[in-house]
Each structure stands twice: as C-alpha cells, then as structure tokens.
Write a structure and sequence with these properties.
This protein is an alpha/beta fold. The protein is 43% helix and 21% strand.
Length: 295
C-alpha cells in the first residue's frame, strides 16, 4: 500500500463514482479501477460495493476511510514541514560573536532582518573568542561566527571567511589622564603607558605587533579576557587600551575615547561559515547577512 493507492481510494469514496473520481484524478477510469482492485487484493477483501449507478463503501472500506484521511493529512504535514525547513522558515541558527559584532551593529542588524523574514526559526547567540568560534563551527557546535581576523591568523580551507567591515582603532583612557583633552593622539604620546589588551588564543599579538613597530619598544601589557573587563581596567586607571571605533557607543564612567592619527592598523570583522552549508535556516540567515553586505 502506498500514498497513491490511498489517494485513489479516497477520491472514489468521496465521489461515490469511478468515472467522476477518475476525472478528478486526471487518469482514465480503467487505470483507476485496476489500482483499486490491486489495493483490495493487497488488503484481502473488497472496499467497495459496486452497483450500476453508484459505488458504496463496505465495512472494511469505511474503516480504511478514516485511516486514509489521517495518513494523507500526516504525509502532507510532513512534506510542508520539511519544505519549510529547507527554505529556512523553520530550524535553528547557532551564532557565535565577538564584542565588536554587537557594538558595530552588524550582528543585531542581521538577526533582526532574519527574525522578520523567518519568525518561526530560532536564533541562539553565544559570545566566544574568535578561535573558539572557528573551533565550534568546525565541530558542528556553531553554524555562523562574527569574529575579527587578527591579521589573518584565523583560517581554514573548510570554512568561508567574508569581510563585514573595518574600523579604526581608538585609544580608551581614563578621563583623568593628562592626554584626555587631546584629540587626535599620536602613538608616540603614549610613552610608557601600560596597555590593556583583550587576550584570547594570541588575539593580542596582531595589535602588539603594530604597536612595537610604532613605538620602537616592547609595550607594558595587562591582558584580560573580555571587552568589558578591558574598559573596566581603563576606568580603574590601570592603563590605556586600543579598541575598535564602534566601542565609543559604550559609555563607561571614567573612560574617554580619543583618535589616533598615525596607526594604520584597523580592526576588522568577518562572517564565518561552513563551505557547502546544508541547513536551510543557516543558508537563509547567511543569505540575509550577505545581502546586507551587498546593499
């Protein structure tokens, strides 16, 4: 027994006539009669009482009628559910992000647009260091990442890396600092200042390399593990920090932001995903994110 047999049976039962059922199904009457006989032989007994004027269900046929209706309805539901998942209308997108993805507005823009287009799909967000994002995507624990490249240190031939944007680095410093009223600054003005950096899997090395070249010396460094703790240490007077320009939106008491006019080393953000992604919801999310980049 297959779904086609059930559809043929249901058409005859509803029409009460082989000829009308055949027209409804767009097949010839002889083919329909043959399929119904095959179904009856498979089940071991008649499903219809055939008269010269109409066709009526036997007791077995009446039992099959309810089962056929439920089975076909469930099959149609399964088909619609799978098709919606393939189109991205259902499913889950697991997204990792670094701080600048939020402060730049890129992540929120993409998630908002995706939620508007696919309200029944689920989005799960996790803040992770860039290298942890890559590892999680490789392991199938995340689907998409928003991470800085740190000078090209992040790479994997199985993954796709697309540039989302670049921003200049600013100096975050205590508002009591002697240079707090100076804007822009030059790297040489930082002198012997301690530098507070976000450090995770060598993420600070790219920034420190640029500073070593600009300063001509090894900077004194305080390392910490989150963007918020970087700004907290700055506010506490522990040193200054180089941060992406979008962080100017973060108003921390005791912290001011000043431009640098001689450090040509931008902060960037990448969209990270798997090559040949198979998930419908993930493909739909990536399509929206990529369209936003093209606009």
């Amino acid at each position: 027994m297959d779904l086609r047999h059930l559809r043929y049976f249901l058409a005859v039962a509803e029409e009460g006539h082989f000829g009308r059922a055949a027209q409804r199904l767009h097949i010839v009457q002889s083919a329909l009669s043959m399929q119904i006989r095959a179904l009856e032989e498979e089940l071991g007994g008649p499903l219809f009482l055939r008269t010269s004027r109409r066709v009526e269900l036997t007791e077995a046929g009446r039992l099959l009628l309810g089962e056929a209706e439920r089975t076909l309805a469930q099959a149609e539901h399964a088909q619609r559910t799978v098709q919606r998942a393939i189109r991205g209308e259902m499913g889950t997108v697991r997204i990792g992000f670094a701080g600048n993805a939020v402060f730049s507005g890129r992540l929120m823009r993409d998630v908002r647009a995706f939620n508007a287009a696919y309200p029944e799909a689920e989005v799960v967000l996790r803040e992770l260091a860039p290298y942890h994002q890559v590892e999680a995507i490789q392991a199938g624990q995340l689907d998409v990442g928003y991470a800085p490249s740190h000078g090209g240190q992040i790479s994997d031939s199985a993954l796709c890396f697309e540039s989302i944007g670049e921003w200049p680095l600013l100096v975050a410093m205590p508002d009591t600092h002697p240079l707090a009223s100076t804007d822009p600054l030059r790297v040489s003005m930082l002198g012997a200042e301690a530098l507070i950096v976000y450090a995770a899997h060598g993420a600070d090395e790219f920034m420190l390399g640029g500073l070593r070249r600009a300063l001509g010396r090894e900077p004194k460094v305080h390392r910490t593990s989150s963007t918020l703790s970087v700004l907290a240490l700055v506010a506490a007077g522990m040193g200054v920090a180089l941060v992406p320009e979008p962080l100017m939106q973060v108003r921390i008491p005791g912290v001011v932001y000043r431009h640098l006019d001689d450090l040509q080393q931008p902060a960037d953000l990448l969209l990270v995903s798997r090559n040949g992604e198979g998930g419908g919801a993930v493909r739909a999310f990536l399509g929206i994110a990529r369209q936003a980049l093209a606009d």
